[in-house]
Amino acid sequence: MDYIVLDMEWNQPWPGSPSARKVLPVQIRGEIIQIGAVRVTEDQTVADEFQVMVRPKYYRTLNRRVSKLTGIKESRLKAEGIPFPEALEAFHRWCGEDIVFLTWGFDDITMLRENMQLHGMDTVWVDRWYNAQMMFNAQTDGSTSQKALKTAMEMFGIEPSRPAHDALGDAYHTALICARLDLKKGMEEYEQALRSHDNGFHGAELPGCICRKVFYDFADKRAALTAMSGAENVCPVCARQMLSSRWFAQPGHRYMDLATCPEHGKFLIRIRMSEQPDGLVRVSRLTYEATSEAAEAYRNRVEKAEPERRSPHRRRRRRKTASAIENGEQE
Prior knowledge:
The chain folds into two domains: about 1-195, Ribonuclease H-like superfamily/Ribonuclease H (Nucleotidyltransferase, domain 5, 2-Layer Sandwich); about 205-325, no CATH class. The chain contains twelve helices and ten strands. The protein has helices at about 65-70, 75-80, 85-95, 105-120, 130-140, 150-155, 165-180, 185-190, 190-200, 220-230, 295-310, 315-325; strands spanning about 1-10, 30-40, 45-55, 100-105, 130, 210-220, 250, 255-260, 265-275, 280-290. The strands form two sheets. It has a five-stranded mixed β-sheet with strand order 3-2-1-4-5, sandwiched between helices. A five-stranded antiparallel β-sheet has the order 6-10-9-8-7. A hairpin with a 3-residue loop joins strand 7 (about 250) and strand 8 (about 255-260). Helix 5 (about 130-140) crosses helix 9 and helix 6 packs across helix 7 (about 165-180).
């Protein structure tokens, strides 16, 4: 068995652009433009490498922020990039069959699956994967927060020798870290490490948090939001079901809502959704006091939304957008 350390770069349409308004067969958060991978053998030796540039099919105009971060230009994608199905076929051949994927974070495999589904490709062969961040935390300082790759390298005394925000460069540096971990032990203890991470809520808590809980195994985002507004929306004081107000989407698969208990008043609810290894949805839920800093952020968001509601020219569009958010149909 080999470990395949994977990293990717992807393009995202500029908000409000024609590309952003495209209706695709499968909803994706970005279109992959670069795949980098490094093989780590079973005896944890860093071995051969793979890299391919991918020519985007749907989001063809390169987001200038993506270009600035990665250094990738549209001219390079046109000159070196190949269609995604060809890139994945070549990648699969290079990987082989008896493999386990390791990534630095939760996003890469999810992004890979979305792009594969967009092109009608079977995703079964990428189902076996682990977030190396969780193994690193469990075998170093035991923290529950996500560490930047640069921070982990510094902790292990690894000097950077490849460019950052380059798929192969980041995969290579991640492979150097993985080679110093006990990967077999990490896989055996992964579920516990993952639960510890979930219970820590990625270090994202704000002052005023009074309750935290993790929920598992929702079929999709819609089912998760329905549960968070219904049966799981209980008062942290009396455990009675609360009345949901309005979900507002935030970056990073996060949503917030102001819920009301008939007896104990209002509480701010913040949730973060993430995909489980089996493809189901996990929800990290935080409950805050109504006077907290987090609740103030909700009130500010409501105030921004009110002018849009009052505008007769945007009323129809606003109604559609709000409905989409409440139904969990957009990030």
